[in-house]
Amino acid sequence: MRFELIAKTMQGLEEVLAKEITDLGGDQVQIGRRMVSFTGDQVLMYKANLHLRTAVRILKPILSFNAKDPDEVYEQIRKIQWEDYFSQNQTFAIDTVVYSEFFRHSKFLSYRVKDGIADYFNEKFGKRPSVRLTNPDIYIHVHVSHNICTVSLDSSGESLHKRGYRVDQTEAPLNEVLAAGMLLLAGWDGQCNFIDPMCGSGTLLIEAALIALRIPPGIYRKSFAFEKWRDFDADTFEELLNEETDERPFNFKIYGSDISAQAIAIAERNIKSASVSKYIQLETKSIQKIAQAPENGLLVMNPPYGERISSTDLLTLYENIGERLKHAFSGYSAWILSYREECFEKIGLRPSARIKLMNGALDCEFRKYEIFSGKRKDLYQV
């Protein structure tokens, strides 16, 4: 039986996610705001959690209705046959997202949803399930857009960016979903060398290896929320976990470097945890010290933006990035994520593509630079 599913994502990654879903076998794929809706069966829902690199969570809608105040929501919640989804002996948590002029307080709306579920169970069974904010059995997601309320079961639980391979991190690690999205936007498919000369805790390197080897990002996770659903098919899920993936040989190399020896040590631990050490070469080195990059490569990087570095040092850093790109990375496509225009200007190259992305709360741009071997004046912005 096929049903509607919603994959949530980060701003700017919707089209990449839609392609992933289509490739996985989703039907009726439609792009929305930070989400992609599609139809699929139970197996596809399991696969979506295991395989989608740019999804944050996979929701299964169970009811949509119109409402303009919390009491109306409460009444609609009590109409759902909740025992079809979980029992009074299980725990649950509610996540509420509101974009509406009618609902000012998402927390109060969450309380009313909780009351509706509790009163339903009390009335029917004389006992109600408990709310548990951490590691509940059932995750319920409520989305309100103007007066349209959608109640869904969250099949993922913890956000899918929490792959399970990260054992340590630097001060501001790159979100794994954003890293995978950047790589897919950059066209990375494992058919050339890859380099991140400011690799931090190694997120881009690991995600690049997973894409190159076609390793599902969800296989490192200990659990998904759907494993506690009443209709969970353990045998089918076990088959999906153990099925032969379409892994392919990777005949190139992934290079990571960072000026911080501590960052490289952290990256090494994460890479080992992901079991991709043999594909990745690490080195403690500043970008200024890279004399010549390997031939035939793609560069993707997420340099500092200025939160923990002085503005003078920051601009000098971006000047150095631009200088090294021109001299050491001839023939490369280079993609850089940043959010300060003055930093981009210091690179001194004309971008051939600009994509707006969110990194946390920051409105960033992901810019592509084609590094040609030619006259110096041709490389500079005009």
Q: Can you give me a brief rundown of this structure?
A:
32% of the residues lie in helices and 25% in strands.
Give your account of this protein's structure.
With 382 residues, this protein is an alpha/beta fold. The chain folds into two domains: 3-154, VC0802-like; 176-215 and 249-379, Rossmann fold (3-Layer(aba) Sandwich), CATH 3.40.50.150. It is 32% helix and 25% strand. It contains eleven helices and 15 strands. A hairpin with a 2-residue loop joins strand 2 (27-32) and strand 3. Helix 3 (70-77) runs parallel beside helix 4 (106-125), helix 5 (176-185) packs across helix 6 and helix 9 packs parallel to helix 10. The radius of gyration is 23 Å and the shape is elongated.
Helices, strands, pairings?
Elements lengths: L2 E6 L5 H11 L2 E6 L2 E6 L1 H10 L5 E10 L3 H8 L13 E9 L6 H20 L4 E2 L6 E8 L2 E7 L21 H10 L7 E4 L6 H11 L20 H9 L11 E5 L2 H13 L6 E5 L12 E5 L9 H18 L4 E6 L2 H7 L5 E7 L2 E9 L5 H4 L3
Helix pairs in contact: 2-7, 3-4, 5-6, 9-10
Question: Any guess at the CATH architecture of the largest domain?
Answer: 3-Layer(aba) Sandwich
Give the CATH level 1 class of the largest domain: Alpha Beta
| N→C terminal distance | 57 Å
Quaternary form: single chain
Tell me the major beta sheet: 8 strands, mixed
The helix/strand series, from N terminus to C terminus, equals EHEEHEHEHEEEHEHHEHEEHEHEEH
- The chain-level mean pLDDT equals 93
What number of domains?
A: 2
Contiguous uncertain segments of 5+ residues: 375-382
